[in-house]
Write a structure and sequence with these properties.
Helix content is 19%, strand content 29%. By secondary structure, the protein is an alpha+beta fold. It has a single domain, classed as 2-Layer Sandwich (Double Stranded RNA Binding Domain). The longest helix has 18 residues.
């Protein structure tokens, strides 16, 4: 289920993978499988991120208490999750984000 996620605006946002590669018979590096969640003031995303030659990591980032409750890809919680995920992946997998 996580490998078929179509909401790519949180953890995968700045990691450079192709979330739709599998549907076109292509490989993606990094490969990302994630599952998002949200409630009023909360954003969450959990992902497996694999990079050739560097291994696989599991990442979970949650926000709570956000005042920006918009259902948009640029709400503060979504951007915070994306930024944290990019920093973690850059450090652990050597990704340039």
């Amino acid at each position: 289920m996580m490998g078929r996620q179509h909401f790519l605006d949180q953890l995968p946002r700045w990691l450079g993978g192709d979330g739709y590669a599998q549907y076109h018979g292509r490989d993606s590096d990094p490969w990302i499988a994630n599952k998002v969640g949200e409630l009023d003031g909360l954003r969450a995303d959990v992902a497996l991120v694999r990079r050739r030659g560097h291994g696989t990591i599991a990442v979970a980032v949650f926000t709570d208490g956000g005042r920006d409750r918009r259902e948009t890809v640029d709400c503060e919680g979504t951007l915070a999750v994306a930024e944290c995920g990019a920093a973690i992946a850059a450090e652990l997998l050597g990704l340039e984000v």
